[in-house]
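Researcher: Re-running this chain for the archive, since the previous output was lost when a drive failed. Same request as before.
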Amino acid sequence: RIGEVPRRNHKDSTFCLLFSEPARAIELYNAVTGENLPPDTELTYTTLANALYIDRNNDLGFVIQKRHLVMSECQSTINWNIPMRCLGYVSRSLENLAGKEGLYGSKLVKFPVPEFYLFYVGNETWNTKTLKLSDSFQAPPKENSLELVVKFVNLNYNTDNEILQRSPSLLGYSKLLYYIKTAAKENGGDLKSAIDTSVKQCMEEGLIEDFLRKHSREVTGMLFNEITVEEFAEIRAREAYEDGE
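Model: Regenerated structure tokens:
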């Protein structure tokens, strides 16, 4: 759209909407941890939504069984500074959970164990299993320093991706993005047509069908805004390279 700044956090809105249903969030947690929690497990969302931090909010946060505070980001670009961002997210989340009395009181405050995940949906190769805060330190940390480890989860579709096989919702989300990229490449970059075709294809295959039927128009609008100019430039460049070959 003319005059509109391309959004840099593309795909996270659809991701957040998909997992805004507690049963799907539990399914997501089971997929990345290997747990087998039932869909009615107690879950409370803690995603930051403070206007003061509008550009520094996490994508998805929730507490499971009052024991695990799950913080996650969905990224389409390589960013090694995710642990530093997560440090800000978790400090604000714990402050919200503890409240002023807990934060400044003298009694020991108990809180859920934080867990950090990065879901990657970008086109570039990013070979890592974890991202660590200490990788940013300019000197070796002492024992009274701190560490924060983010587990890397690649959501790009391929038949060997085991995590996708553990979660129908993740599989549907991953395939939807894969179909959009493929269709856009084949039709010369017509994004609207690529999204419409891909959403219809997922519904016909029974992939997150209930979600797409319920939010079809909303998801289509989100996806249209979430695919950035940079991504389409990459698609065009790759297509030109292949034509050159």
